[in-house]
Specification:
seven-stranded mixed sheet, 33% strand, Thrombin, subunit H, 27% helix, Pdz3 Domain, seven-stranded antiparallel sheet
C-alpha cells in the first residue's frame, strides 16, 4: 500500500519529467532558430562578398601588338581570294593478285587458264592548292598536284567551280600552270624573291587536308636551300609556317601580301607539319611560268660546264682562299663556256654580277638566263682572279631530256686503289670510246681513304696532280714520286662526267 510520502514522491518525479521535456523542446526550437539565423547571416555575407568583388579589368593591348594583329588579318584578307583549291582525279591500273588455287592443275582443268596479267582500274583523287596569277584565269601550282590528272576541278574562294586545263608542267622545278575559263579574277601581286631575307615574317595560304582558305604564319627560316633531292633545280625558301598535305601549290606571301613562293614540300617523319617546309621562289616560278605559257616548254640557259662544290681540301689545292664558288670539272666541246675560254680547273666565283656560293647556285643562275644573253663571269685560275664574257646558249634538247646542263656533282677523296690500263674489254665494259685515255679503278681497298671518300670501281683516272695520265706507265711514274703524306689531286671520269678529287690536307 502506497504511503503518502511515496505518493508525493511519485507526483514530484512526474512533474520533474514534464519540466525537463518542456525545456528540451524549447532548446531544440532555440537551436533551429539560431541555425537559421546564422545560415541567413552567412548567406548575406557571401552575397555581400560577391557583390563587393571588384570587376575584371579589361586587358589593354599595346598599340604595336594590335597593329601586328590587324596587319596579319589584312594580309590574309588580301591574299585569300587569290588562292584556290585544286582537286584532281586520274585512272590507275593496278595488278590484281592471282588466286593460289590456279597453281593447282586440277583446279585449272575445270576453270581454265587464268589471266596472266590481271588488272583492275580505279579512280585516284587528290587535293592541292593553286594561286591565281592573272585576271584571265592562269593559275600556278605544283607539278605533282596535277601530274597525270584526267580531270581538274578548280574551286575559288567564293565556292565557284571551274574545269581546269594544264597549260604546261615542269617536273624539274615542280612548277605547273593551269588555265580556267574566267575573267576578272583577283590575281596575286608578285614579289622579288631575291630580296627576301631569313627572319622575315611570311604567311602560307592553301587548303591543307581539303580545308579551304587556311592561313598559317611563320618566318623565313633560310633561303637558297639546294641539294635536298626534291627537284633537279633547287633554290628553295625554307619556312616554319605550317605546311601540310593539301598546301602544295599554295601561296607563300610576305607582309605586303605579295607572292614570294609556291609551297611545295615538307620534311617530316610523320607526314604532317614538323616545322620545315619548302617553297619554290617566285622569281623561278615566274620564269618557268612565262616559258610554259609562251612556248609550252621551259627554255633554259646553258653554259656547257660540269661543276662541283669546293671542299676545304680542294680549296687548298686550287688556292681559292675559301670554299665559295663552283669548280669546273669539265668543259663541253663547242659549248658557250669553251668559246668564252673557260677551262677545266677554273673556279667560278661570280656570274652576271652575283656571287656564286656553290655548284647548285651556278646551275640555277645559268638556267634562268635567256638564250643569247651576254654575261660577265669572274673566276680564279692559277691563283689569279680574272673576268671573261660569255654568251649563254640554249640547253640542248637531248641534255634537257636526260637531266643534263650545268651538272652539280660532289667532290670526294682517293686512296688505296688498284688500277689497270685500258684494254678493249675494259673500254667496252665501261662504255668508253676509242679515244678515251687514263687508267681504270679495278678495286677499292675496304677501310681505305678511297672507300670512305666514295671512290668507285670503274672510275677512270685522267690526271694526277694535274699531270695527264694516258696509260698505266704515266700513272706509275707520277705516283712513284709521291710521299705517304703528300696531298694528291686527281681528275677522274665517272659515267661520262668529270670529277676533281683530293686526298690529304696539304696545300
Amino acid at each position: 500500500m502506497t504511503t503518502e510520502r511515496e505518493a508525493a514522491k511519485g507526483v514530484m518525479e512526474k512533474d520533474s519529467r514534464k519540466y525537463f521535456r518542456s525545456w528540451y523542446v524549447l532548446l531544440v526550437f532555440i537551436g533551429i532558430a539560431v541555425g537559421l539565423a546564422v545560415s541567413s547571416r552567412l548567406d548575406l555575407m557571401n552575397n555581400g562578398a560577391a557583390l563587393e568583388t571588384p570587376a575584371h579589368k579589361e586587358l589593354k593591348l599595346s598599340p604595336a601588338l594590335m597593329q601586328l594583329s590587324d596587319g596579319l588579318a589584312d594580309v590574309a584578307d588580301s591574299v585569300i581570294p587569290s588562292v584556290v583549291n585544286i582537286s584532281t582525279s586520274k585512272t590507275i591500273k593496278q595488278q590484281t593478285p592471282q588466286s593460289p588455287l590456279f597453281n593447282d592443275p586440277f583446279f585449272r582443268r575445270f576453270f581454265g587458264e587464268p589471266d596472266m596479267n590481271p588488272q583492275r582500274e580505279f579512280r585516284q583523287r587528290s587535293l592541292g592548292s593553286g594561286v591565281i596569277v592573272s585576271q584571265d584565269g592562269y593559275i600556278v601550282t605544283n607539278n605533282h598536284v596535277v601530274e597525270g590528272a584526267d580531270e581538274i576541278t578548280v574551286v575559288l574562294s567564293g565556292k565557284e567551280e571551274y574545269k581546269g586545263k594544264v597549260v604546261g608542267a615542269d617536273p624539274r622545278s615542280e612548277v605547273a600552270v593551269v588555265k580556267i575559263d574566267a575573267k576578272g579574277l583577283p590575281a596575286v601581286a608578285w614579289a622579288d624573291s631575291d630580296k627576301i631575307r631569313a627572319g622575315e615574317l611570311v604567311m602560307a595560304v592553301g587548303s591543307p587536308f581539303g580545308l579551304n582558305r587556311t592561313v598559317t604564319v611563320g618566318i623565313v627560316s633560310a633561303i637558297g636551300r639546294a641539294n635536298i633531292g626534291i627537284t633537279d633545280y633547287e633554290d628553295f625558301i625554307q619556312t616554319d609556317a605550317a605546311i601540310n598535305p593539301g598546301n602544295s601549290g599554295g601561296a607563300l606571301v610576305d607582309m605586303k601580301g605579295e607572292l614570294v613562293g609556291i609551297n611545295t614540300a615538307i620534311v617530316s617523319q610523320s607526314g604532317g607539319y614538323q616545322g620545315v617546309g619548302f617553297a619554290v621562289p617566285s622569281n623561278m616560278v615566274r620564269q618557268v611560268m612565262d616559258s610554259l605559257i609562251k612556248t609550252g616548254k621551259v627554255v633554259r640557259g646553258w653554259l656547257g660546264v660540269s661543276v662541283q662544290d669546293l671542299t676545304p681540301e680542294l680549296a687548298k689545292q686550287f688556292k681559292t682562299g675559301g670554299v665559295g664558288g663552283a669548280l669546273v670539272a669539265e668543259v663541253v666541246k663547242d659549248s658557250p663556256a669553251r668559246k668564252a675560254g673557260i677551262k677545266q680547273g677554273d673556279v667560278i666565283t661570280e656570274f652576271d654580277g652575283k656571287a656564286i656560293s656553290d655548284s647548285g647556285h651556278l646551275r640555277n643562275a645559268v638556267a634562268s638566263m635567256p638564250a643569247g644573253s651576254k654575261v660577265d663571269i669572274t673566276l680564279i685560275r692559277d691563283n689569279k682572279e680574272m673576268s671573261i664574257a660569255a654568251a649563254i646558249g640554249e640547253l640542248p634538247r637531248e641534255m634537257a631530256a636526260a637531266g643534263g646542263g650545268e651538272q652539280a656533282v660532289t667532290g670526294s677523296a682517293l686512296s688505296g686503289v688498284a688500277v689497270k690500263g685500258l684494254t678493249p674489254e675494259l673500254r667496252a665494259q665501261l662504255g668508253l670510246g676509242g679515244d678515251a685515255a687514263g687508267v681504270a679503278v679495278t678495286d677499292v681497298k675496304p677501310g681505305s681513304d678511297a672507300e670512305e671518300a666514295g671512290i668507285q670501281q670503274g672510275d677512270l683516272i685522267v690526271s694526277v696532280n694535274r699531270e695527264k695520265v694516258e696509260k698505266i706507265a704515266d700513272y706509275n711514274r707520277i705516283v712513284s714520286k709521291l710521299g705517304k703524306e703528300d696531298p694528291v689531286l686527281l681528275l677522274i671520269s665517272r659515267k661520262g662526267s668529270m670529277l676533281w678529287m683530293s686526298i690529304g690536307h696539304g696545300g
